[in-house]
Amino acid sequence: MLVFRSIQLIAVIVAIVLVAHTFRQYTHQKIGLSGMLFWIFIWILLLVSMVLISIEPLVLEFLSVIFMTELPLNAALILAVIVLFFATYELYLSKANTDKEITTIVRHLALLEEKIDSIAESIKLKEPKE
After folding, report:
1. Is pLDDT of 1 > 70?
2. At 11, is the secondary structure helix, strand, or coil?
3. C-alpha distances in Å from residue 45, one per residue of 68, 86, 101, 106
4. Furthest CA-CA distance within the chain
5. Of 10 and 115, the one with more pLDDT
6. How far is it, in rounded angstroms, from Cα 98 to Cα 8?
7. pTM of whole model > 0.90?
C-alpha cells in the first residue's frame, strides 16, 4: 500500500515542479544540455527515492543504519543536507576562482590601456608642427 507522509508528498510535488522548471530553463537557453540532464537526474532521484520509501520503507534501511536514525526518510534528509553543504562549498570555490580570474583580466586590461595611452602620447609628441 502506498502511504505518503506529508514531507514525502511535499518532496514529490517539489521534484515535479523542479523538473518542469529545469526543462523550461533549458528551453530558454539559461542552462546547457549537460546542466539540464544533471539537474533532471537529481530531481528524478529525489522523486524516485520518496516513492520507494512510500512503497517499501525498508528499501533505504541501510541509510538509517549509517546515520543512526529511526526512519529512512530522516536519513535521506540528512544525506540531502550533506550533499547541499558540499554543493555550497563547491559554489564558493567556483566563485572565488571566478573572482581571481576577473581580477587578473582587469589588471591586464589596465596595463594595456596604460601602454596604449603612453604610445598615443608619444605619437602626439612626434607629430610635425606646422
Report:
1. no
2. helix
3. 22, 18, 35, 42
4. 98
5. 115
6. 37
7. no
Residue 42: other Cβ atoms inside 10 A: 16
Quick check: 40 and 78 in contact, CB under 8 A? no
Q: Which of 33-42, 79-88, 102-111 has the highest mean pLDDT?
A: 102-111
9: nearest Cα among 46, 56, 62? 46
What nine digits make up the cell of 93?
570555490
What mean pLDDT comes out for the span 30-43?
Answer: 91
DSSP state at residue 58? G
Q: Can you tell me the distance from the alpha carbon of 50 to that of 40, in angstroms, rounded to the nearest whole number?
A: 15
* Whole-angstrom distance, CA of residue 58 vs CA of residue 71: 9
For residue 29, give Cα distances in angstroms to 18, 19, 44, 77, 125: 16, 15, 21, 31, 51
